[in-house]
Design goal:
Blueprint: H1 5-42
Length: 59
């Protein structure tokens, strides 16, 4: 009995390529989330918006 090597090879390459695409997607998603969080911190999103620099607060 002979097996079709082309069919076996194509089945083996598919999961490897799919793993690479998943890895690349996770990396891009993680970088996007980190950049968004960095931008939110820089624009004072978590502290209630823009700081009022004209107000005088005493300690």
């Amino acid at each position: 009995m002979t097996t079709n090597r082309n069919k076996v090879d194509s089945e083996e390459q598919n999961p490897r390529g799919l793993r690479f695409v998943k890895f690349l997607f996770i990396v891009v998603l993680a970088v996007t989330v980190l950049l968004l969080a960095r931008s939110m911190v820089r624009h004072h999103f978590f502290s209630g918006g823009q700081l009022n620099r004209n107000a005088t607060t005493e300690p």
